[in-house]
Design brief:
Length: about 400
């Protein structure tokens, strides 16, 4: 039977309603923005083996449900370091989000606030901490930093974030040098993007994106002074490859609030940063954008949880694409998952409403998975409900 057109829905709403999983949003995103922009978000380092491994690790998970448990009311809420969150999900730091859509960081922060979850603003953001605070005042805002060569500039930025109401600092430690992004290199991608002959040819295919890019506030890094350059050059100019654990002490003395260390992958490092006063460990390989052939964070989760103890906060990211993945990560020992690409696909597909859609899909999926697993609360998601593929002997 031919269905009548859905009345009252705008074209955008219909398009988003027709996206039934994150992969649908990804396909939509791909059609909506110029190819170099899509590739910047979608791509990974080198042969993209890490990126694939992250996703494969979640695909390979086997869930073992329990039955005949009252799942008539599902509660997905949790405490993340004392902060109440409606879902065990965090929107991770993503550089230059306004490249994906003009709603950018503010749209993402607003959607996070509506979903009742934290939003992490990147140091490489295209919107300043002050503007995010002004336009998303109700958001639970966390700020991501790197260890810069220029420590005085680091301190000034941290101070700005504190004054703008950011409550938690996320120190990213997996970028001592920039990863090798072959898609960006092949596309001649610069940050901020620039008009080249190739990109001018793209204008005709994505006129709306280009009208926004050329008429709104110019795209650029809001928190750091830059010149237009390749990503590798930009990062290597700013980041300090000589940083050590001692620098965590320095950061600890500069920031009285919560500090999470993002980019840890081994149990030993997790214990080491915990011993230096980190309030939480964030397992990540930067979404497969840095080290090639890196282990998937999910694979290290049980070991890291065992190493840091039951009380420590442990977050995991990389390859989370569905509610079932969120449930699997929580069962395997995570307090929350972090998503990067899934919400940026949403942004590219439909701006702020697209982020809402991505979060709706994940929420619905989590609620359904918990019911089917026999877990009415997150605390009911137990390690024996999730079987991760066995690790190879080489991995120890
Ligand atoms: C386009 C893009 C930009 C990113 N920029 C940053 C950044 O500035 N700082 C950071 O710590 N992580 C950054 N990340 C990594 C994410 O915070 C997160 O670790 C990763 O995206 C998780 O994997 P997923 O994309 O599979 O969800 C970025 C990721 C993407 C996709």
């Amino acid at each position: 039977m031919v269905q009548p057109p859905r009345r009252g829905l705008s074209l955008l709403e219909r398009r988003l309603a027709d996206a039934h999983d994150i992969d649908d949003l990804r396909r939509l995103a791909r059609r909506r923005v110029p190819r170099p922009i899509f590739d910047f978000v979608d791509g990974g380092a080198g042969d993209e083996s890490t990126l694939r491994r992250n996703e494969d690790a979640f695909r390979a998970v086997e869930l073992v449900p329990r039955v005949l448990r009252d799942v008539s009311a599902i509660d997905t809420s949790t405490l993340l370091g004392g902060v109440r969150a409606a879902l065990p999900v965090i929107l991770g730091p993503v550089g230059m989000t306004r490249m994906a859509h003009r709603h950018g960081e503010i749209g993402a922060a607003r959607a996070a606030a509506r979903a009742g979850i934290p939003y992490v603003l990147s140091t490489m953001a295209s919107t300043s901490p002050e503007r995010v605070a002004e336009h998303a005042p109700d958001s639970e805002r966390w700020f991501q930093v790197y260890l810069w060569r220029d420590r005085a500039a680091s301190l000034r930025l941290i101070e700005r974030a504190r004054a703008a109401g950011f409550t938690t600092l996320v120190l990213t430690v997996d970028v001592p040098v920039a990863g090798s992004r072959l898609r960006d290199a092949r596309n001649g991608m610069t940050l901020p993007p620039s008009l080249t002959l190739k990109s001018v040819l793209q204008v005709a295919r994505h006129p709306r994106w280009w009208v926004d890019a050329l008429t709104l506030e110019p795209l650029g890094f809001a928190a750091i002074e830059t010149r237009r350059a390749g990503f590798v050059e930009q990062s290597n100019r700013i980041l300090d490859p000589s940083a050590t654990l001692d620098d965590l002490d320095w950061l600890r003395s500069a920031w009285p609030g919560r500090i999470l260390v993002k980019g840890v992958l081994s149990a030993e490092d997790a214990r080491a940063v915990q011993a230096r006063g980190a309030d939480g460990v964030w397992l990540s390989n930067h979404g497969g954008r840095q080290l090639e052939n890196a282990v998937a964070p999910l694979a290290m989760l049980p070991e890291v949880r065992a190493a840091v103890g039951a009380e420590a906060q442990v977050y995991v990211d990389g390859g989370v694409r569905s509610g079932a993945h969120i449930a699997a990560a929580v069962a395997a020992g995570a307090d929350a998952v972090v998503i990067g690409r899934p919400y940026v696909y949403g942004l590219m597909a439909g701006g702020e409403a697209g982020v809402d859609r991505a979060l709706d899909l994940l929420r619905q999926g989590l609620v359904r998975t918990m019911a089917l697993l026999g877990a009415a609360r997150l605390a009911d998601l137990m390690p024996d409900m999730v079987r991760l593929p066995p690790r190879s002997p080489a991995a120890g």
